[in-house]
Q: What sequence folds into this?
């Protein structure tokens, strides 16, 4: 019975949702759906259209391009947003490295969600800026 | 009714046990029998029908059965126009619900639906050990023991088809004291009352719609704005229940409130509902009645204690693409519980397994899968000549009920087997195909994108890698013209 509160509690600890007050978190937890993946299961598939936006609540996932692991993602990290924002298929697979628990937002709902919660959008931008900085450091 | 008195499956050992006699249990039993898989069916009910023996509360479904449709009744394409009848192999078992409809609506009444299910069970002679309540399950050797009110059943394979039948409430303080949707009284008993409905999905709107002529005021409250099917490519509250929404839009006295329900309290002669929302702020409502239209969970009994993992606040078991428990092999699910197998969630859509329209097709796929993998039944894979493949796949995209009822979830699979040649491998879960190894193959699905357009979507496996190609939409949902033939032929170059 306590699981919805548990999801709100976990979301409250994640940087992406850190600026949301409790009623906003409650609402956000209803807008997202919970989804589990078993070890080895693909969540995003390289080249497939219509993918979604995922935030990891627990577990670990690998980002793979043509079978090569490029990064690993853990609790609080998110994926799928580039594909959703650009309306293009993902350029990588995301694969569960162990049982993975996520919340997911369907692509058609992402824009309205980010406009409703601009602080989440700002946090997402910050994370993207960090990814871009790290990618530039790696190149230089 | 003969089934009421007969005790066809006394406790004992069976190759397979199906639990439940709702549409999910009936459908899977019917199909297993035709595949020659011996099994027992047990049910705590006194007769067939499951949830439809009691619900929907206000006596009419929200899924169509069109007595007159473009496709002929009792044919496979007609199943798309009749979302409520179970699937039959013989004509006398097909399209039964429309037989009982009185023409008032193309949404059957609860009684019409129940009559269709009853007729299916009787005409197909589906045997069920009725009034046999499943109480617990334990593992033993290489299988399971089901403890029931009649005694113990042993089996290596169990199909749990008990429906999303257990009233469920979220952990909101005080809500446990308020009546659930299933305890809603006849509408006229709400005459002149102020009613707060917790929940804005179909059941909340169904109650609101029924109370419109009676209640003094209706408030539907929950954190999330309502998802409306006509605005969200089919998901959410069906158009049939939108009159309360229109009333809200026009300021007629119904309020649709996007707010968290912080707590519910008894107040003098009624209830106090405390809410807080981003836009609404803190509001306390004093109401005559509160109804928790907060949905249902699965009555899994003690399955979690033997390792069956759940999600969605314990309401659904985690499942593989073939509807097997993700954590306890040998336990499968049928019926509405199969909505726990999410599929690819393309464009945000997790399939249509919550309703009969979708899960009846899952049942056929499951029955074939069980027959093959657990009972060694050889299922024919009809050969296809290479020139037949493109027209066949495009015909399936245009009219296969499995592909339309289960968009982006079930697919028609054609395999290019080096030994057997091109074969029709039947309908499969798309999620199972795209991640499975195997010979070159093509799977055809139908998908609806974010703009609401339907696309035949082709998944081609070559040398172990699966690529996806969405074909263009067509204003009449017909995909057999030259343009489609040319495009699909080009995609399959080298395979056909």
A:
């Amino acid at each position: 019975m306590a699981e919805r509160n548990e999801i709100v509690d976990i979301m409250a600890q994640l940087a992406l949702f850190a600026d949301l007050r409790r009623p906003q978190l409650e609402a956000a937890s209803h807008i997202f759906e919970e989804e589990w993946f078993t070890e080895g299961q693909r969540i995003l598939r390289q080249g497939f259209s219509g993918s979604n936006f995922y935030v990891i609540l627990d577990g670990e996932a690998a980002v793979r391009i043509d079978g090569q692991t490029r990064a690993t993602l853990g609790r609080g990290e998110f994926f799928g947003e580039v594909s959703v924002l650009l309306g293009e298929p993902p350029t990588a697979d995301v694969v569960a490295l162990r049982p993975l628990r996520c919340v997911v937002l369907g692509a058609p709902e992402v824009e309205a969600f980010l406009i409703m919660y601009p602080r989440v959008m700002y946090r997402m931008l910050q994370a993207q800026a960090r990814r871009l900085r790290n990618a530039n450091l790696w190149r230089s | 009714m003969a089934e009421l008195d007969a005790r066809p499956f006394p406790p004992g050992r069976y190759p397979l046990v199906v639990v439940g006699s709702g549409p999910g249990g009936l459908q899977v039993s019917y199909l297993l029998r035709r595949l020659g898989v011996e099994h027992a069916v047990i049910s705590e009910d006194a007769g067939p029908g499951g949830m439809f023996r009691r619900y929907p509360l206000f006596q009419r479904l929200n899924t169509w059965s069109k007595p007159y449709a473009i496709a002929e009744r009792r044919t496979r394409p007609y199943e798309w126009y009749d979302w409520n009848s179970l699937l039959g192999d013989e004509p006398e078992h097909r399209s039964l619900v429309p037989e009982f409809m009185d023409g008032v609506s193309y949404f059957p009444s609860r009684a019409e639906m129940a009559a269709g299910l009853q007729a299916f069970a009787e005409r197909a002679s589906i045997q069920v050990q009725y009034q046999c309540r499943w109480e617990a399950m334990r593992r033993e050797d290489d299988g399971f023991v089901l403890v029931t009110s009649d005694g113990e059943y042993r089996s290596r394979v169990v199909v749990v088809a008990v429906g999303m039948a257990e009233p469920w409430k979220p952990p909101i303080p005080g809500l446990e004291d308020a009546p659930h949707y299933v305890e809603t009284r006849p509408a006229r008993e709400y005459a002149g009352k102020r009613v707060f409905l917790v929940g804005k999905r179909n059941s909340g709107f169904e109650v609101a719609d029924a109370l419109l002529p009676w209640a003094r005021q209706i408030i539907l409250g929950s954190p999330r704005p309502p998802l409306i099917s006509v605005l969200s490519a089919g998901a959410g509250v069906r158009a049939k229940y939108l009159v309360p929404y229109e009333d809200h839009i026009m300021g007629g006295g119904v309020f649709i409130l996007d707010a968290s329900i912080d707590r519910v309290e008894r107040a003098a002669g009624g209830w106090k509902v405390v809410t807080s929302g981003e836009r609404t702020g803190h509001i306390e409502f004093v109401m005559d009645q509160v109804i928790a239209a907060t949905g249902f969970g699965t009555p899994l009994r003690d399955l979690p204690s033997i390792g069956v993992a759940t999600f969605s606040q314990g309401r659904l078991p985690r499942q593989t693409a073939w509807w097997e428990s993700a954590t306890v092999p040998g336990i499968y699910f049928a019926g509405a519980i199969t909505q726990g197998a999410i599929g690819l969630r393309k464009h945000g859509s997790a399939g249509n397994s919550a309703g009969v329209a979708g899960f009846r097709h899952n049942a056929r796929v499951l029955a074939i899968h069980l027959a093959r993998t657990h009972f060694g039944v050889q299922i024919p894979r009809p050969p296809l000549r290479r020139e037949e493949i493109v027209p066949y796949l495009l015909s399936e995209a245009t009219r296969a009920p499995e592909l339309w009822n289960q968009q982006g979830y079930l697919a028609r699979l054609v395999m290019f087997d080096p030994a057997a040649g091109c074969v029709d491998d039947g309908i499969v879960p798309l999620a199972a195909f795209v991640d499975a190894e195997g010979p070159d193959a093509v799977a055809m699905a139908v998908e609806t994108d974010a703009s609401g357009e339907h696309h035949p979507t082709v998944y081609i496996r070559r040398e172990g890698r699966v690529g996806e190609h969405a074909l263009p939409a067509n204003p009449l949902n017909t995909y057999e013209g030259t343009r489609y033939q040319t495009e699909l032929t080009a995609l399959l170059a080298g395979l056909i």
